[in-house]
Amino acid sequence: xxxGSHSILDVVCAGDASSQYSGVAGIPTGGGENGxxxxxxxxxxxxxxxxxxxxxxxxxxxxxxxxxxxxxxECVSNPKEIVHVEQFLDKVNAVAKLDDGTFYRLLVAxxxxxxxxxxxxxxxxxxxxxxVRVVFKKHDSLTVTVQDQGAGFDPAGVPNPIEDKNLFKTxxxxxxxMKELMDEVQYSFGKEGSKVELTINLKRL
Length: 205
Description:
Elements: E1 2-3, E2 6-7, H1 8-13, E3 29-31, E4 37-43, E5 46-51, E6 54-59, E7 69-76, H2 84-96, H3 100-121, E8 129-137, E9 141-147, H4 173-181, E10 184-190, E11 193-201
Antiparallel strand pairs: 1-2, 3-4, 4-5, 5-6, 7-8, 8-9, 9-11, 10-11
Helix pairs in contact: 2-3, 3-4
């Protein structure tokens, strides 16, 4: 796509190209790991992140004031990608404005879901992707959907980590935490992969 007269490639290659869109939205910038950089901006209701020389696109829909707001993040199946979950959710919370306790619940559950998708769903295969999608409905709900390209599993068959016989096992903790921290957890499995939906009921806050 085009950003004004600049293509996405132009923005990736030009270190200060995004500054031309400073009138569209604020542009927080900062350093990343190993001296890499990231620059973030909004253009035509889309949220863009320049990080380490690559462009990651998050949708940020604001067609109508009361419409649900949608955010997306895609990552490769590398455990190092998990650190970006918090950065992504910080952008969500800039809009959702959750209290600290609720945001902590969201962060822990979402991190566990992404970790499971990378490690168990996609078996850390860098050719496979994990998609994280957040739908925020003000005063109603916030739902995080994490989709991988794995074959799926039986949630009922995951051992309960707080039972005496499972206390020293590492498996099952992520599924347990998601269930305990979220108001609703739903799984679905299909040809395109596995999905877990984590929902916080904002009406209860």
